[in-house]
Write a structure and sequence with these properties.
heterodimer; A: mainly alpha; 8 helices; B: mainly alpha; 0% strand; flat
Chain lengths: 249, 68
């Protein structure tokens, strides 16, 4: 029961986070394809995926050499930094303190930059366009790889969690191929809020385990942490929203 | 070279966006680690520092954020 609970939360976190990252990478790849065609966009994206595969193949055996409590502590702290960064941004975006991430605007900006490069470096453009696609897939993919490794660390959940991440990326790629434009309707901030809550909860759990804390209820504590981060996040959004309306009036 | 440095910058940015938040989280983890090392029998105290420290850091950080 506890194992399936942990698996369920890890799979949900990996799926939702991969969905967000894949949407962001797809926006750049689509912009490259729009300006220079599918050849540089596809080659760049495939090269990015190949480098990611090499990183995973190289990292796998190294991780198994690290003592479990050291791995838990290191991954826990990184997850806390990563998850709370997402949660903070999502709270501030939901409260209107910073602008929402706009895939259509990101697509327009990347397209404009590539067109500007086209005017300046016509001969090197395919290379530059491919590089933009490569960088987007590599950077967003690294976040996916980190999340997959982090939420499945030490619990033998790597395969199901990887499958969830792969399913999310395949879903986004398929949607991108069908609609041929950025997936601007994906509720990105809500997904980031949810992922921020899940990753922060996992980070707290792993950091504590790494420090030798015996959490009450073992894996069940993760559910409690998810609830606490969720309530805190929603409360912060409400408080910030109220403050903004008081200032406005 | 500029692409490589951009990649490195973005990699660091994955974990550190707001420096104050990152520093505060690290400080909470260090405090929890010290508590665990000084009083191993009371590991629950270390867990409490970690849990309420992280939640507190998040609340303080967002409540002091400025609109942009």
């Amino acid at each position: 029961m506890l194992g399936s609970l942990h698996f369920g939360s890890a799979i949900t976190a990996a799926f939702l986070a991969s969905l967000v990252e894949a949407v962001e990478a797809l926006t750049i790849v689509l912009a490259v394809a729009t300006v220079r065609g599918w050849r540089p966009a596809g080659l760049g994206a495939l090269s990015g995926l190949a480098v990611l595969a090499l990183i995973v193949i190289a990292l796998g055996p190294v991780l198994s050499l690290i003592p479990l409590h050291v791995l838990q502590l290191a991954i826990g702290v990184l997850l806390l930094l990563f998850g709370m960064r997402w949660l903070r941004k999502a709270i501030l975006r939901a409260a209107g303190y910073i602008a929402l991430h706009d895939e259509a605007a990101a697509f327009a900006s990347e397209t404009a930059e590539l067109q500007d490069q086209a005017r300046r470096h016509e001969a090197r453009l395919d290379w530059l366009a491919g590089l933009a696609s490569f960088k987007a897939v590599l950077l967003e993919g690294l976040e996916v790889v980190f999340i997959v490794i982090a939420v499945s660390a030490g619990r033998g959940a790597l395969l199901p969690v990887s499958a969830a991440a792969f399913a999310a990326c395949a879903l986004v790629a398929l949607a991108g191929l069908v609609v041929h434009r950025p997936l601007a309707r994906v509720p990105e901030n809500t997904l980031k809020f949810a992922v921020g809550v899940l990753l922060s909860a996992f980070g707290l759990f792993w950091t504590g385990e790494g420090l030798g804390v015996a959490w009450p209820g073992d894996d069940l504590a993760i559910l409690g942490f998810i609830a606490l981060f969720l309530v805190t996040g929603l409360g912060a959004v409400a408080l910030l929203g109220r403050r903004a309306s008081v200032v406005a009036s | 070279m500029s692409t490589l440095s951009a990649i490195v910058r973005e990699l660091i940015g994955l974990f550190v966006d707001d420096g104050a938040l990152a520093l505060a989280i690290v400080a909470v983890v260090i405090a929890a680690g010290l508590a665990a090392a000084l009083a191993p029998a009371a590991a629950w105290a270390s867990g409490g520092i970690l849990l309420f420290g992280c939640l507190g850091v998040l609340v303080v950080n967002v409540m002091t954020a400025k609109r942009c």
